[in-house]
Amino acid sequence: MTQPAWPSSGIGALALTDLLGRWPAAEGPLYRLLATRIARLADTGELPAGLRLPAERDLAAALSVSRNTVSAAYQVLRDEGMAESRQGAGTRIVPHRTTPAAVHRANGFFAGLLSEAVVKADLSLAAVDCAPAVAAALTDPATLLDRAERDALTRTSGYFPYGLPELRSAIASHLTERLGLPASPAQMIVTTGAQQALDLLIRSEVLPGQPVAVEDPTYPGVLDALHRAGATVIGMPAGQGLDPDRLEHVVRTHRPAMVYLIPTYQNPTGLVMPAGPRHRVAAIAAAHPDTLFVDDMTLAELPLRDGPRLPPLAAFGPGQPNLVSVGSLSKLYWGGLRTGWIRGSEGLIARLAAAKAAADQGTAAFQQAIVAALLGGQHEDIVKWRGEWLRTRYDALTSALRASLPAWTWPEPDGGLCLWARLPGDADGSAFAQAALRHGVAVVPGRLLSASNGGASNGGASNGGASNGGASSGGAGFVRLAFTQPPDVLRAAVRSLAAIPAPSR
Amino acid sequence: MTQPAWPSSGIGALALTDLLGRWPAAEGPLYRLLATRIARLADTGELPAGLRLPAERDLAAALSVSRNTVSAAYQVLRDEGMAESRQGAGTRIVPHRTTPAAVHRANGFFAGLLSEAVVKADLSLAAVDCAPAVAAALTDPATLLDRAERDALTRTSGYFPYGLPELRSAIASHLTERLGLPASPAQMIVTTGAQQALDLLIRSEVLPGQPVAVEDPTYPGVLDALHRAGATVIGMPAGQGLDPDRLEHVVRTHRPAMVYLIPTYQNPTGLVMPAGPRHRVAAIAAAHPDTLFVDDMTLAELPLRDGPRLPPLAAFGPGQPNLVSVGSLSKLYWGGLRTGWIRGSEGLIARLAAAKAAADQGTAAFQQAIVAALLGGQHEDIVKWRGEWLRTRYDALTSALRASLPAWTWPEPDGGLCLWARLPGDADGSAFAQAALRHGVAVVPGRLLSASNGGASNGGASNGGASNGGASSGGAGFVRLAFTQPPDVLRAAVRSLAAIPAPSR
User: Fold this and answer.
1) Which pTM value belongs to this model?
2) Is the CB of residue A490 less than 8 Å from the CB of residue A124?
3) pLDDT confidence of residue B18
4) What CA–CA distance (Å, rounded) separates B323 from B315?
5) What sign does the CA torsion over A101, A107, A108, A113 have?
6) B303 CA: distance to closest CA in chain A (Å)
7) What was the pLDDT predicted at A453?
8) Which of B37, B159, B202 to mutate to test the interface with A (most CBs of A within 10 A)?
9) A195-204: per-residue pLDDT in tens?
10) Cα A64 to chain centroid, rounded
11) Residue B215 Cα, gap to closest chain A Cα (Å)
């Protein structure tokens, strides 16, 4: 945590491109937008003082803009005292810290959430709108909670670091009865979404510098939390599914503090880990009690086709304390609920609750009662409604892609909210994502989902600042497309994407 | 963060006492309850393998129990394979990790939230029940939000790392119009209570090992977050108010990354920093731009008497980027809302929003709309209602103390929810708190609010395990009493406390 995220030597053009995120999605001349965004990154410490910016021609290629645009942007930065250029030493960020900030890592993945830029079609965020039954419950809680229940709740302090007891019970029953995982309320903690579940696990169980193994590609939010915690991230190829032999080798060799897997509807591929490999993973976990194996079940109730479901990893060793499960209702009910959970041993849950008390003293209480009532009541109806909602969108996106971009390929997903699309030829996902933005479409460049890239922000650093697309740039030829927008928006987005001349890597 | 929180040599009796927290507040023989609680702390990693437990007679004195009770508890631990005793080497925790946990720090302060033990009168948690107007709004949001507003919100993704725009605006107006601090929505981030505000600031702006200066005594939740982040905590005496010369000396000498202050109704003393020292603090901040000065305004709307209000520190330099304000509606509306905020420079807010995206992607969204509507509507009525609620309780507690425990003294608070009570003679707060628990009353031992104690858990460690009450045991002769329980509960609690023979330090 004490190392700067960047070497003083420089940042590569593609790494900077991912950090820049949605810079062109605003009004004004491109060079001005580019300068403003770079200045902002310098202001927030994401680009530290002394950092050498990429050569103009490299950045221009990565951004799919003319070299003149980059030249003019650098000139603006020099004029505003944010940068300086010296013969033979390139252009560097000038020291100008406005706050006592340490050097910060940042992951371009959350740029869509953090930016105020508006795009016509956001295919970058795998977020759903609120299910009607959930919206009705939020609007009129009295339909779900009687007066006695409401009064009992509002007479409490409202602080529940473990979660509201009713919700802990409701989630434990939900896991036991619907998802094939025996669970007791004492094994549960309620979190502010699955993101906080992962962040608490990492803060509590991983020390800076310790190795953590993840699938590559994987959910970019976990990479951000891992990089912030100073973990050493080890990627295991999973574009076509994870090879358990590879996992075993990594666990034996690196003895990671944690292994993070998404066995059901993997993010981004949407694939399911079959029963055989699940047994193998549980056996590897049994042989390595000092490694925590985390099964992220966030997408587990979002199948794209009918058929039998496989039990989560922890069901293969229900009493094994190093098998941990994480989940969320964000993709089924609504992200705005921010309701996630962890199932683990009682000792682990006690440690996590202490960490949560120090982090926020507990998630908002009243809504937990509403969610508990929904889990015990309309859950199956919501699953059915969301399934239809999802398949309509999936069909719209895949049909449009097949019609307009026939050279694109992707593993056929079993479930989830995303396609992991390979661009044709040697097109680069980061450069393509930039071009797409200027056509009003946001997609996630594959590099941001790659562990071997070291996260968006320090990929360039570990590459010594070279703007190469070599061995360390996992996911370079891919983009992640979420199909959570309405079908007509998805179809219009594909038309826009098809109009982009594919940039080369 | 990689050092164990305990030396292998041992833990002091008073440090262990604070960690044990509410162990006697359950059914069963004392020795069994004590053994169970020690075993639990070993299981969660708070007492690491190899740690030497205190000598039986020291722990017995600290817990106000007989030596036989401690002997029997240690015997149970040995019988259950949790401890071993060797001639001349005392009793040690046996290695038995059930999970791959790192060594964990913990602060006994949150024990009340984390424990399921029930006490008759909880004077340890300064938490309020829900204001009736807030409960009504939660139950029937349609009275505050019209259908168009609700629909617009539930059609979004629900992810707002900066906070819901309506609430950012409402809090900015609230600060500007009611609390004397000019603020724009872009300077605001919404957090899950003030605890998360502090945790995000510390995670984002303080590197492990960096010094952070706080008042001594101070809010124990900030000490927990600082210890978890590996900060070096520097306490500045503040039992009678903070001396600005002392602050200036500390800032000059240690160049802390952060200074954390509660100028209005300080927790736990309830004192107000006068106008002169506020000007001085702002001037010190202006002279030290690399130190962040955090003003915790959580209690600022809870005066105990009428009179003019002083503006917050940031109002003395509204454009100064190292003056940061933090606040919460938890003590005025309800803790179960978990609504807090930070006001800072736009660069700082951008960094904090990126940290919040990685921590939880944002606080629950729907309720933010309810809180925004309350801030714009019934706020003044709620302040008035809570003020009466509070003064009734304050009068009940102070009258009862004066009548039944006339030797106790405390600084007369200007506002807030707590008394900082000095015990008569050389009575020790931790030992007294233990005795109080066995009389059904929970209070916070003063040591847990003391920066110079190094937090609950590693005070013993830095003292080399000796159970002394010496120079490093700040707050030893004090307890914090919250007056947030109903008046009759407070009066009964004081009767119970008066029945306790004061243990000596």
Assistant:
1) 0.85
2) no
3) 82
4) 9
5) negative
6) 20
7) 58
8) B159
9) 999 999 999 9
10) 25
11) 19
| Residue (of A197, A123, A204) closest to A163 by Cα position | A197
pLDDT in tens, B356-414: 999 999 999 999 999 999 999 999 999 999 999 999 999 999 999 999 999 999 999 99
DSSP state for residue A241 in the 8-state scheme: B
Q: H or E stretch including A127?
A: none
Kindly report, residue by residue over B49-59, the tens digit of the pLDDT: 788 999 999 99
- Does A159 have pLDDT greater than 90? yes
- Please report the beta strands in A405-501, taking only residues with DSSP state E, as ranges in sequence order: 418-422, 441-442, 444-445, 478-482
Which residues of A fall within a CB distance of 8 Å from B344? 99
Q: Which residue of chain B comes nearest to A146, CA vs CA?
A: B139
Please list every residue in chain B whose beta carbon sits closer than 8 Å to the beta carbon of residue A128: 157
What's the burial of A75, exposed, middle or buried (CB within 10 Å: 0-12/13-18/19+)? middle
Interface contact B107-A358, CB threshold 8 A: yes
Q: What is the mean pLDDT of each run of 10 residues along chain B (505 residues)?
A: 48 86 78 86 79 92 90 86 79 61 49 70 93 95 92 93 97 97 97 97 91 96 91 94 97 96 97 97 94 97 92 93 96 96 91 92 95 96 97 98 97 97 92 90 92 47 31 76 97 96 57
**What's the rounded Cα separation, in Å, for the pair A43 and B354?**
14
**Of residues A1, A99, A364, nearest to B208 (C-beta):** A1
For residues A314 and A324, what is the distance between their CA atoms, to the nearest angstrom? 6
Q: Is the pLDDT of residue A293 over 60?
A: yes
* Residue-level pLDDT at A102: 35
Q: Which ipTM was obtained for this model?
A: 0.84
- Contacts of residue A308, defined as CB under 8 A and 6 or more positions apart, other chains included, come to none
The SS3 of residue B239 is strand
pLDDT classification of A4: cutoffs 50, 70, 90: very low
DSSP class of residue A143?
Answer: G
Residue contact A334–B158, C-beta within 8 A: yes
Q: What angle, rounded to 10 degrees, do the helices at A365-376 and B366-376 form?
A: 140
3-state DSSP assignment of residue B13: helix
Per the CB < 8 A criterion, the answer to whether A311 and A275 are in contact is no
Name the minimum distance, in Å, from the CA of A333 to any CA of chain B: 11
B358/A150 CB distance under 8 A: no
Which element (helix H / strand E) includes B462?
Answer: helix B455-462
A343: enclosing H helix or E strand? strand A339-343
For residue B222, give Cα distances in angstroms to A185, A192, B202, B294: 29, 20, 9, 11
Q: How many angstroms away from the CA of A407 is the closest CA of chain B? A: 31
Residue A193 has its nearest CB partner, among B196, B348, B361, at B361
Contacts of B217 (CB under 8 A, 6+ apart): B238, B239, B268, B269, B420, B446, B449, B450, B451, B474, B475, B478, B480
* Total number of residues shown for chain A: 505
Chain B partners of A358 at a C-beta cutoff of 8 Å?
A: 107, 110, 195, 199, 221, 224-225, 228
Judge whether A459 and A473 are in contact, CB under 8 Å.
yes
**Chain A nearest C-alpha distance from B501 (Å):** 31
Region of poorest pLDDT, from A144-153, A411-420, B192-201, B466-475 = B466-475
Angstrom distance (rounded) from CA B498 to CA B63: 18
Q: Is the pLDDT of residue A504 over 80?
A: no
A361 pLDDT higher than 50: yes
SS in 3 state form for B28-43? Answer: CCHHHHHHHHHHHHHH
DSSP 8-state symbol, A312 = P
Place of tokens 């944690």: A258
* Cβ within 8 Å, pair B359-A257: no
Residue contact A364–B363, C-beta within 8 A = yes
Q: Say whether A357 and B100 touch across the interface (CB within 8 A).
A: no
Q: Return phi, psi of residue B341, to 5°.
A: -160, 160
